[in-house]
Specification:
316 residues; mainly alpha; MetI-like fold; 72% helix
Length: 316
């Protein structure tokens, strides 16, 4: 009679003692209990605000309780695709991405290869190159604003230091030089992170492959091209996807270095979104910008992932 109550799985216990069914059910729920706090935070911090932003994008929404929130349908999304200032922001973000993503990958890869070699004080250099990553964006943005200011360090070096020119260039006074300054900051702050990720990938490349290539007479550059880079393909895919996402999320450096100037020429999607929401109080339009930006970044990430996986399958 008792054997019909306990199934065969419940008998797996030390000394032949059956395990109660209720206990097994309690153990089965344990993983979900561990996942519950993280999932709850994800819902409260990520999922619910995203759904709420999508809802607000269809209204002329006001944060004042009891205010009349007028339904406008797709008007805000039509405005997104016809707004010339926002279009300029997306162009600036694309320029920033095309400069900073390859720059961080190439310089980060070179730095990772250097730190992977046996060199004196290698651990110290690894720490020093990673310091910009852990430094606050606010701090480094203010430092770079002073560096590129009209009376800043760079102009002092060019005019008074090496006497290369008699005039002080206004680096932050024109669109392209200001974008270049933002790109320099983005690359400088990001190469340490890229180098650490690629360095971890380099440590997983079998030494035997490099030794075999050396025996065959391959130079160092050939070994990097034919051995190291193919082995780092998945790591490079991971890094490039995150860097593309980060390039469209640039905000603090633009706000503190140029504040979108001169004349809004260096606005980025997030800074433009910020102004629409918190300066002009147009929360509905700002939410529509956020939705479109999220979808754009998602599509770009999917295209990158698909391209890398397709190339990986073709090589196999």
């Amino acid at each position: 009679m008792s054997s019909s109550v306990l199934d065969p799985v419940s008998r797996r216990a030390s000394g032949g003692t059956p395990v109660p069914v209720a206990r097994r059910r309690r153990v089965r729920w344990t993983p979900y209990l561990f996942l519950a706090p993280g999932f709850l935070l994800f819902v409260l911090i990520m999922l619910w605000p995203t759904i709420k932003a999508a809802q607000i994008s269809f209204y002329d929404w006001s944060p004042i309780p009891g205010a009349d929130n007028t339904f406008v349908g797709l008007d805000h999304y039509r405005q997104v695709f016809t707004d010339p200032d926002l279009r300029l922001g997306f162009v600036n973000a694309a320029v920033y991405m095309l400069v900073t993503v390859p720059g961080q990958i190439l310089l980060g890869l070179g730095l990772a290869l250097l730190l992977h070699t046996r060199m004196p004080a290698r651990t110290l250099f690894r720490v020093l190159f990673y310091l910009p990553v852990v430094t606050s964006w606010v701090v480094v943005s203010l430092l770079f604003r002073y560096l590129f200011a009209n009376d800043g360090v760079l102009n002092w070096f060019l005019v008074d230091g090496v006497h290369l020119t008699d005039t002080r260039p206004g680096w932050l006074d024109s669109r392209w030089t200001a974008l270049a300054a933002l790109c320099v900051l983005g690359i400088w702050k990001g190469i340490g992170w890229t180098a650490v990720i690629l360095l971890a990938g380099l440590q997983g490349v079998p030494v035997e492959l490099h030794e075999a290539a050396s025996v065959d007479g391959a130079s160092y550059l050939r070994r990097v091209w034919h051995v190291t880079l193919p082995a780092l393909r998945r790591t490079l895919m991971f890094v490039s996807v995150l860097l593309v996402i980060g390039s469209f999320n640039v905000f603090i450096s633009v706000l503190l270095m140029t504040n979108g100037g001169p004349g809004g020429q260096t606005e980025m999607p997030l800074t433009y979104l910020y102004r629409q929401a918190f300066e002009y109080l147009d929360f509905g339009y700002a939410s529509a910008i956020a939705v479109v930006l999220t979808l754009l970044v998602l599509i770009l990430s999917m295209i990158q992932t698909f391209a890398f996986r397709r190339a990986d399958r073709e090589d196999r």
